[in-house]
Amino acid sequence: MKAKKRSRLKKGKKLSIKKENGTSAKISKYWFQRYDLFSRYDLGIEMDEEGWYSVTPEEIAIKQAERCRGQVVIDCFSGVGGNTIQFAKLCSSVVAIDIDPVKVELAMNNALVYGVANRVDFLIGDFFHLAPSLKGDVVFLSPPWGGPMYKEVESYKMDMLQPRDGYTLFKIALSIAPNIIMFLPRNVDLAQVEELAWLSSPPLTLEIEENFVGGRMKAITAYFSCNAV
Questions:
Q1: Would you say 146 and 153 are in contact if contact means Cβ atoms under 8 Å apart?
Q2: Could you tell me the superkingdom of the organism this chain comes from (predicted)?
């Protein structure tokens, strides 16, 4: 699958995005984590406000990519490109999708910083509309969790995922690839995660990995597979 690699943004809007880096009060508390998010941050990485609290820390993204080595990966909610970059280093092909053209522009910039932009097909579009035309070996799902407030919930439920509930997302992913990886909040209801495996017939194998950065648990990754991923 090939896609137009460059989207056009108004110059003024892109400049405003650059100014978000460390200056906004909303993201200043994430500033000290910048090298955990992107080790090459100082070489030209750009993020919007949402990217600061939603991008997968690089250490975790690397581990997730290692499980997909040599395969075709569909990154369904690619955001500013944290996972996309690591997939591009190790996988045979990567399709990165986001409905927000600003995020796609940022992801392309960040992929250039890491020297992997030519290994990714970037698509601006709604994943749910594009899904019928997608095929791959692995679907990677890291949908919005609803912002930083997810931490205040004792047990995070599948219906809290955005823009649709986790069950719907998973069923669509099953139509694209036999293996699915979901990046989820650390307080997610694990019983509901296990239920997802049974949406396939026969049920998929499930492995749950706790993700730590700097000794602190950040999230979990759920690996669903018909074979070992």
A1: no
A2: Eukaryota
Could you tell me which residues come within 8 angstroms of residue 191 by beta carbon, excluding any fewer than 6 positions away? none
Quickly tell me which residue has 């692995």 as its tokens.
138
User: Kind of pairing, strands 138-141 and 72-75?
Assistant: parallel
One DSSP character per residue, 58-119 reads: HHHHHHHHHTTTTSEEEETT-TTSHHHHHHHHHSSEEEEEES-HHHHHHHHHHHHHTT-GGG
Report, in this order, helix, strand and coil percent for the chain, each rounded to 5.
40, 20, 40
CA angle 74, 76, 78 (to 5 degrees): 105
pLDDT (tens digit, 9 = 90+) per residue, 109-152?
999 999 999 999 999 999 999 999 999 999 999 999 998 889 89
SS3 label, residue 218: strand
pLDDT tens digit sequence for 66-92: 999 999 999 999 999 999 999 999 999
For 87, counting Cβ atoms within 10 Å of its Cβ (0-12 exposed, 13-18 middle, 19+ buried), the class is: buried
CB 83 within 8 A of CB 59: no
